[in-house]
Amino acid sequence: MVGQVMVEIIEKLKEQVTVQELCAILNVPRSTYYRWRQESKRIQGAYQLEKSVGELCKANKYRYGYRKITAILRQDRVVNHKAVQRIMQKYGWQCRVKVKKRKQTGQPYYVANNLMNREFTSQKRLEKLVTDITYLPFGGKTLYLSSILDLFNGEIIAFAISDTQNVNLVLDTLQQRTNKQSKQKALSLACPVKERPLIMPQLNRFMRHSKQKRFISTD
Known about the structure:
Helix 1 (2-13) crosses helix 3. The chain is 46% helix and 13% strand. The protein is built from 7 helices and 3 strands; from the N terminus they run αααααβββαα. It is α+β, with helices and mostly antiparallel strands. It has 2 domains: 2-91, no CATH class; 129-212, Double Stranded RNA Binding Domain, CATH 3.30.160.
């Protein structure tokens, strides 16, 4: 506090009297005066920075974090992001917008009953059918292949290709099977997601073969 007062006095009078004479009158070494002046500039700069950060936080209703506030301040000055972060933490000016909770991806919407019960063999055609979807590289975009396999003999009895992975792709595949359905009644069985790796090798052979083929656009 004393140093700041001394600096203010010398700064006001140095236009009329030299700094050396003023320091002698006030009995203050010049090195001490320059140290006080440097410290005063630092304190004043910190005060101005706190004021600017507070004004920006208030103006934006505390919706911005320290990175955004730093980016705005850097438009007209040099400022360290850590200094801005410390100020916002000191006065509780952090972003007050709550992060929206999102559903975790990768979870099945509906878990089917385990009717398959790990029995991935069949004694007759169309008794047990399994299905899956894979992607096919096609130029600069991706196509999706949906297929249905008969566990009796590993035959692909229906498949459909689309540029969108949605419900319609699955329905189109099922519609193909419906159109080709014989008089023999097909039994549709469900398989839990965790047991899919046991039946995937059969479908994967067909899908790998499909990926190796060239697709030519008819547009």
